[in-house]
Amino acid sequence: MNHARHELPRLANARCLTAVVTMLLAGVLAQGPAAAGADSGTWRNPRPQPSGKRAAPREWGRSVASTDCNNNGIVDEDEIEACNGLPACDDCNLNGLPDECDIAAGTSSDADLDGIPDECVTYDNGGADDHWSTDENWDDDISPNNQPETEGFSATVGLFDVVVDESVDLNTLRLREGTTLRVLGTSSEDMEIQDTGGLQLASDQLTQSVLLIGNGRNIDASQGQVRIKGGGLYRGESSPAVAATSTGRCAGSTTASGNLLAGSLLIETKCGATAPGEMSLSGTMSVDVVGDAIVDARSGCVACALCPEVGSSPAGMVAGGETPPILCLRDMAGLSIGGDLVLLGAAAFHHTSTQPLVIGGSFINESTCPDCVAVTGPIVLGGGTGAATAAASPQSFEVSTLDLGPAPPSSVDVVTEMEVAANAAITFEDAFANHPSGDAEALYVNTLVLRQNASVTVSGCTLYYKTLIDDGAIISTANGGGLAQFAGVPAIPAASSWGLLISILALLTTGSILLLRRAARIAPPHAGPVGLAYKPMGR
Question: For the CA atoms of 450, 430, 289, 361, what is the dihedral angle to 10 degrees?
Fold first, then answer.
């Protein structure tokens, strides 16, 4: 009997086990407890930050150039913001100028000399119901749709619940504190807002200004800005009887189906407001923004706000903190942005929808509260209404997740799918310190799809992926950046687990040594190389 041939499996197993144990020991000892993280066990990228990292946010937010139309030494936008309701400093037509300047310049008429431009109408709830179409519900007892004049009107609604029961055509629409506007009709109760002032939701009081949309209704404000200020809430619903106030962050009906077309979008907050500006998209709602979408928390009370969990009360404050403004996508809601998506200050952004977030421009994430940003839903870069612009000029995507290496813990945010559209030019970068620790930041993606002729640059950061689909993209790296595949398994155990790990490795090593010794006893003394016929030298 050839004992050597029968011992082949045992010898192979022993040698393989020894090799694995050696590699494990070498790798673990090379990492050391410090690399594993003496406290949390998390992996940290020791690579220094790129020299181009931005320390301060860019300038965003003002919708018009700073002017002082009445020469009172106060910038017009600041005067309007601080206005206490007097007609002179109000801006009922949302053109960015105090109304007294419009009347003085002759751009607005004032036939009754009340200091209010004649194109401005106010809902006063004087009728027997809460319908938009009821003439008696307006200050001159004629609804905007029934006005005899041919020019458009700017409507203001405050303190009342209003049901939009007809198709509405306006210059601008302003919702103030205590208002709930229900755009929940079931036929053709849509709204068209034609001027650049667009749609504004705001409240400085204890009650929010709420716009509820659903049942497939449409709001077209593509010529102007949709501005959701502190105390303003845009949310989806399917029932006209829903409560006026928000029941929590990112709340809304899972069956809501309303559509908004905006020229630009600005969501912000104000120190002292009862709640931040909030847009919550749920169900199958959709929002298409022609230009930029900005979430700006720089007007809040503190530099970094309290960031409550999704579903908690929007007014949940603690000492020294406040709830930040938020843009939220969930369920099957869709958002397409032709320009840039910009997060400033303690801005919050949640994307867990199964539908893609489409960004035609850049993702400029300068949020100073990283826990307020949670993005796991799919993303398409260089698509939507801004696809032509994205293809013509390079865009950027700011990564903001802590770089936890190729084996991050399960708690890390992972984008389900990231697609760079054909012909788009995208640079993934770590140009802003979102985390106060200053540690390197990265992006984790389950499936990374690079379409034909897409130009992708990874600069000063790591773009991690599980699956890469390359349809013919041009990939380059800069400033120490790169692409890497990640496993999605727990990181190296923390220092507290080293004793158990070493014990297990010691047992494995002992087992391999015993196997080798047994194989050595059974094999013949001059068996020669395993698997080869033995032939003594000289024969």
Answer: -60
Q: Residue 254 and residue 250: Cα distance in Å, rounded?
A: 11
DSSP conformational letter for 496: G
Among 45-59, 91-105, 402-416, name the one with the lowest average pLDDT: 45-59
The vertex-329 CA angle with 452 and 378, nearest 5°, equals 25
The CA distance from 213 to 163, in Å, is 11
The string of DSSP codes covering 28-71 is HHHHHHHHH-TTT------PPPPTT-BSSPPP---SS----TT-
List, in sequence order, every residue forming a beta bridge with 464; answer none if it has no partner. 444, 484
Predicted model pTM: 0.79
The pLDDT confidence band at residue 535, using thresholds 50, 70 and 90, is very low
Q: Give the contacts of 113 (CB within 8 A, at least 6 positions apart).
A: none
Give the C-alpha separation, 336 to 386, whole Å. Answer: 9
**Angle value at C-alpha 371, between 262 and 477, nearest 5 degrees:** 80
pLDDT score at 276: 86
Lookup: tokens for 40: 């949390």
Sorting pLDDT into bands at 50, 70 and 90, what band is 5? very low
Specify the pLDDT at position 303: 52
**Rg, Å, the chain Cα set:** 31
The stretch 275-303 carries a mean pLDDT of 89
Spatial separation of the C-alpha atoms in residues 104 and 477, rounded to whole Å: 58
Tell me how far apart the alpha carbons of residues 221 and 384 are, in angstroms, rounded to a whole number.
Answer: 18
445, two tokens: 């993606």
Residue 26 has pLDDT above 50, yes or no: no
Q: Which tokens sit at 428?
A: 């993934």
29, with CB counted inside 10 A (0-12, 13-18, 19+), is exposed
* pLDDT band at residue 384 under the 50/70/90 scheme: low
Residue 41 has pLDDT above 70, yes or no: no
Q: What is the DSSP string of 139-190?
A: TTSS-GGG-SSSS--EEEE-SSEEE--S-EEESEEEE-TT-EEEE--SSS--
Rounded CA-CA distance 284/232 in Å is 21
Specify whether the CB–CB gap between 283 and 236 falls below 8 A. yes
281 and 335 Cβ atoms separated by less than 8 Å: yes
DSSP code at position 421: P
Cβ-proximal residues to 335 (8 Å cutoff; 6+ apart), any chain: 281, 286, 287, 289, 293, 327, 329, 351, 353, 357, 358
- Cα gap 523→3, rounded to integer Å: 6
Pick the residue with more confidence: 197 or 499?
A: 197
Angstrom distance (rounded) from CA 516 to CA 512: 6
Q: Is residue 284 helix, strand or coil?
A: coil
